[in-house]
Design brief:
The complex is a heterodimer of chains A (202) and B (186).
Chain A: H1 9-19, H2 30-68, H3 72-97, H4 107-130, H5 134-147, H6 156-191
Chain B: H1 20-45, H2 49-66, H3 76-99, H4 124-136, H5 140-150, H6 155-162, H7 166-184
Helix pairs in contact in B: 1-2, 1-3, 2-3, 3-6, 5-7, 6-7
Classes of the chains: A mainly alpha (202), B mainly alpha (186).
């Protein structure tokens, strides 16, 4: 079987010791697996119900705020923010579910796909998560700075603006650094000349 | 069955994706033949007993799900090893996020002290602990090569499971041999 002398005396002991470890075999009948699969389905349904319920409650709360907020400026900004948040949450959910699950692929392919998935999340986060909320946030800040008689001419909206800009820039730098880190790992793996993907999924 | 190799199972013939009954039959075969190997993979990738049991169940569950699309283009053994190692690698990645621990390549890792360098001889249990500790510091692919080598798989089989080229496997196996020899020297 061996195409090179792998069973040299100096590591035969290690192999023997390794293979003689006591096995920990949990009871795992197919009935149990069916039960686990059903449990998983129920958990998904529960999570979906919670997510949808939360979304409905949030929308109702936003609608109340919209109705009670005076002026078209604030109303339109809030509407834009709600649309942006809804879009970002939808995208988050879609992308979280699009994670690779090719468990039987070769290790290299599986690992690269996992890394690519994480890299793409970090690389594109600003585009589908931050950007959709920008119009609403800018509109609200502008209203607080120049429209709202309670905050116009005070420092508070300026401080909030500066903090928001700092947080956004910091997040963008962090996301870029994380994406670059994953890309470096991918490059290192690809440089290792993995085999073509013809038999990747068995 | 301890120390089973992929050669012990014949290559399944080409056929369409498995039916539910086929899946159950394949799953039972996989567990009977490769259960101990899965157990060793879980042990090497998770030291905590409770989390190890979770990982093992996760591997079994993913294996059961994946067998629905098993089409016989590779042996059952190759399939089982791929699923088990990939699930273990994903588990390590998740745990690494929690533990904030940097993993190393085979080339980077420091060789363990040879037993003859120490005043007290170490027994098998301690050796096994050292071995597990060494494996636990490796990056996923290097870890997988080492685990497959310890399970007595040859370079071609390691290449088929991991997707690494023959040259790459040879280099990594050479390094694994040196590390193991160092542990067992004396």
């Amino acid at each position: 079987m061996q195409d090179e002398p792998m069973n040299e005396p100096n590591d035969a002991g290690a192999k023997r010791l390794w293979q003689s470890q006591p096995s920990e075999l949990p009871a795992m009948s197919s009935a149990y697996l069916h039960h686990r699969a059903n449990e998983l389905q129920r958990a998904f349904r529960r999570r979906n119900a919670i997510e949808q319920g939360t979304a409905v409650v949030t929308l109702v709360a936003c609608a109340i705020v919209l109705v009670t907020t005076p002026g078209y400026w604030a109303k339109s900004s809030l509407t834009l923010l709600i649309i942006g948040m809804s879009w970002a949450l939808l995208q988050w959910r879609r992308r979280a579910r699009a994670g690779s699950s090719v468990a039987s692929a070769t290790s290299v392919t599986f690992y690269i796909r996992e890394l690519e998935h994480k890299r793409d999340l970090h690389r594109t986060l600003w585009r589908w998560y931050l950007l959709p909320m920008v119009p609403g946030v800018v509109g609200l800040l502008a209203w607080k700075l120049f429209g709202d008689p309670n905050t116009r001419g005070t420092w508070t909206p300026w401080i909030v603006t500066v903090l928001l800009v700092l947080w956004t820039v910091g997040s963008l730098i962090y996301e870029r650094a994380k994406a670059a880190q994953y890309q470096r790992e991918i490059d290192a793996l690809v440089a290792g000349e993995p085999k073509p993907s013809a038999r990747e999924t068995g | 069955m301890e120390g089973i190799t992929l050669d012990t199972l014949p290559e399944p013939p080409e056929r369409p994706a498995a039916s539910e009954r086929d899946v159950e039959h394949l799953f039972e075969r996989a567990l009977a033949d490769f259960g101990p190997a899965i157990s060793r993979i879980a042990r090497a990738n998770e030291a905590n007993a409770a989390r190890r049991a979770d990982l093992q169940q996760e591997i079994y569950f993913e294996l059961w799900r994946s067998l629905a699309v098993f089409d016989g283009r590779c042996s059952l053994g190759t399939w089982v090893y791929r699923v088990a190692l990939n699930m273990a690698a994903r588990h390590v990645q998740r745990q690494r996020r929690v533990a904030l621990r940097e993993l190393q390549n085979l080339e980077e890792i420091a060789e363990p002290p040879a037993p003859h360098d120490t005043c007290v001889a170490i027994d098998d249990e301690q050796r096994l602990a050292l071995l597990n500790e060494l494996i636990g510091r490796l990056k996923p692919l290097d870890r997988q090569v080492m685990l497959l080598y310890l399970d007595d798989l040859d370079a071609a089989q390691i290449g088929e499971i991991t997707g690494l080229s023959a040259n790459h496997v040879a280099v990594k196996v050479h390094r694994v041999k040196r590390l193991l020899a160092q542990m067992y020297a004396g």
